[in-house]
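Researcher: Go.
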Amino acid sequence: MTTTVDPTKIARDVAEAVREFNHLTFPRPDQTLAQRLPQAIEQIGTALDKLSAVGHLESADGEDPSRHVANVQEFLIVAMEQAGHLAETLELSHSAVSPLTYSGPDNGPEEEPCGEGMCQCSCVGYLHPCGCDCPRCPYCQQLPENCECED
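Model: Structure:
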């Protein structure tokens, strides 16, 4: 059985995951994810070094694997530095925004029917960027009365 990957669905799923992440982390003032990236990157480098040291790496191009590991390590050092800068910049952004308060109307897109107001989901599957729950088929994106998919 051949499985077809729909790039549009993947993009929608990623957008939903980012939206959900943003909603889950919104009330917290810390930038824990960005602050932990340098350590995670360093651990990738450590794991790569260990694999190389015990001879568990080979090179598809016939070169010495340790040469490739050294190149990767250089890039990981740059990535760690950039991740550190990201964490610092996010912390500065948080400090800059902290005196601001919201004074607009108290009705978000989740209170409005899909397609109205600030809703931008276009009703695609169960994962809606706006958080609405309008009933669309996750496969064909049609309303139930127009869906011809077999359950």
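Model: DSSP finds three helices and no strands in the chain.
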